[in-house]
Amino acid sequence: MLVKICGITTPEMAHKVAASGVDYIGLLFTAHSPRQINVATAKAICDVVKDYPTKVVGVFFDETPEQIATIDAQLDLDVIQLHGDAPRSGVGQFVNKPIIYVADGKPLPVELNPAKDFILYEKFTPEMTNFRYFIAGGIDKDNVLEQIEQHQPHGVDLSSGVESTRGVKDFAKIREFLALVRPTYYGAYGGMYVPELLIDPLHDLIDAFKTIVPSQEFQSEFLGLLKNYVGRPTALTKVSNFAKAIGLQHVYLKREDLTHTGAHKINNALGQCLLAQKMGKTRIIAETGAGQHGVATATACAMLGIECVIYMGQVDVERQAPNVAKMRLLGAKVVPVSDGSATLKDAVNEALRDWASSYENTHYCLGTALGPYPFPQLCAQFQAVIGREAIAQFNEQAGTNPDIVIACVGGGSNAIGIFQGFLADENVQLIGVEAGGNGTGVGENAARFQSGRLGVLHGNRTYVLQTADGQIADTHSISAGLDYAAVGPQHADLFAIGRAKYDVCSDGDALAAFQLLTRSEGIIPALESSHALGYLMRVAKDLPKDSKILVNLSGRGDKDLPALLAKGLVNVTN
Fold first, then answer.
1. What strands lie across the sheet with 307-313, from one edge to the other?
2. Do the domains spanning 2-182 and 196-218+262-376 agree at the CATH topology level?
């Protein structure tokens, strides 16, 4: 469903509206409207919006084709919209752009092109449905779903329906509106970009997610397993020695390394496998990079008595041998994937191929907060327990919320889990840390927000590392769990609206953090978590010493030791 918001009057407003994920913004050049702007303001707005996929629509009422062309020459508008006494014919001779023609009883031009142009109905009449059309006129969150159901438009156009006062856009209303009309998206990100074959299985999963997961029976069983099987709540540990070593006073770790299986992955794997069992599925497949999701899924399947197949890149099979052995010991079949770069993205490819041919009896237990909807939402909901626990524990120990929450970000499941506890408090800075690898060139890192651009990978629209030709780029990280070309759509949305910041940590800084936490606190962190710690070590000198910092320790580092020792990357001498 396309969404157009009209009456944008400032660059600041345009930035926030575009970041929310709307498809079009409308700029009014007519004195008939209190939302009129001049060309200079419009130019500033266009400069802001060019960094987003949002298209800019110039809205004209009684200007001549020559006047419209003059304004467009200064702004390079994406679309022209014609109202009132604006000529219906001949504009296309001066401006070679898609045109939105307002259907107000006047004849539509013969040159209307159904492939690129639109009709806009302010009072809907059904006789022109051969063309693509928007509906407008009094649309807001309270009536939009009824209007869409009744008229089946290609898009909706609104202005006052998302305003707090006349001419002032309310960004909370915009996000609420978008969530209604595009429920599979997070702002501009997410969606269900899959073959038609998988649409029905995804909708079956959405239905199960909406009906089974909220039920008292499911919640009672799931929460009981989290407590008595996983070992929740996990501890919140103040690491004073580590803090002192980097010049700070108050650093706390949320200890997901203390869960059964040694990482946060068990929260999501157990929730999805339990849901799959209640859906009648008899087989579970999963992808894994570092092996923690594979171990967690194999563990859940062993406990629930479900067949389990794990896809894993050949490179990761070799560097995560302890976890491969655990998966096989737990009864899972581990399938090495040698295609492509033989890492996580290739394992996801194979898992999706399997699911496309086996969905009737198989559930794909996707391990992180990405993929086609509803997988990001499933994962986020099952990982939200981290944030719920952390905010209560932090307030109990420190008497307040943290100043900063830091988590590593591969797909982003541990980060979205802990971030959810603090999203409502805008005084808490949220920082996600990507893999900086060993350089800034293509194939040397997995820094999607620094080097990626908008694209589609594995069923969702998000930031993706790509070559100049638009192919998926190779990635590198010392951490298998962060070695992935895309990032979850919720993180893309948080980045776009400015609620979370994303930075990088190099391989070398992650190794230094791995060693420092181990030696100073007796806690061996996973290499993934070491990226969050390494980032903190790097920026500590710029923070007030009394800053209250919470780091999500997403897993333990036992799995990483054999490869690190074999390569001589950690010092084990006294």
1. 333-337, 307-313, 283-288, 362-364
2. no
